[in-house]
Amino acid sequence: MKKRWAVLTAAIxxxxxxxxxxxxxxxxxxxxxxxxxxxxxxMQESAEKAAQGEEVSKDAVVISVGFENSxxxxxxxxxxxxxxxxxxxxGGSIVLELYPDSQLGSKNDLxxxxxxxxxxxxxxxxxxxxxxxxxxxxxxxxxxxxxxxxECWKLQESDWYKGQDQLLQENGLKIVASNWKxxxxxxxxxxxxxHPEDLKGMKIxxxxxxxxxxxxxxxxxxxxxxxxSEVYQALQTKTIDGLENVTSxxxxxxxxxxxxxxxxxxxxxxxxxxxxxxxFFDELTGEQQExxxxxxxxxxxxxxxxxxxxxxxxxxxxxxxxxxxxxxxxAEDKQKLIEMSxxxxxxxxxxxxxxxxxxxxxKAMGK
Length: 367
Hints:
- By secondary structure, the chain is α/β, with parallel strands linked by helices.
- It has 15 helices and 9 strands.
């Protein structure tokens, strides 16, 4: 885990900022959801929904939920569902305050505050969390490790996955839920890809983590780490030839304006992992812990239904509104991509992974 003094100092400052942000939200009546206007209003609405119809106790556990998405995103709407569920089922004794659009800072900022014991939850993924004490978890972002969502859920039910959760807990983080689909990740490019051979030398933007960099390099493209905010202009100027992400992002981020070709290779089945600090989680009662986890998972089911519905809607919008062409990957080409990616797994030791991890994960999925 990366815990240098500079990071710790920044974490302390971020924690102070978080506390101030929460206080300001309550005083100024900032929105916590698309329908609610303040933390106090949120608690009042929760009380009205509570089975006993009683006011929320001043001792209610108030948790800040920070995430990057806007409230119009299907995932964010599922977070609102989570808020409703936990406030209703807890009788208003647990309140979620929602902070979309990175209002509370980056994932790194929020993770740092969690490690200091703040009541914060954020969304992450295996590649990100692999740098916080569970390096093997990065394999869930390995290329073509999954062939279906059922395989994702089966892995999450395995003893191996539970072991990763335990490692994170030992390093200060606790997985709350990870049954949330974000989507299959494909390639969006400025020129068409018909076959794997066309990828050679193409500059593909990736987030700045080793797993995604090396997975793109393995299929003979050139991984180009870059902030998401820089992608649109880079596509326009052809500084990059494309990027990889979920279908909805191609539309909502407007990246499909300068890039018109999607190669549907589904190299990653991207599921979200909601995490909080283990010290905060341990402070909750057993009943509160169960409610936090069960309502998060219930909201995850709702999220997945929303994602399944909107996936085709985004495909239609990209096709009809933005003129995007989708290329399905044939079974033969998919096998080529899997074989090309073997070099990624041959270098597993450089990612800090356990020996034989790939085989372990395949066995956990019954493959």
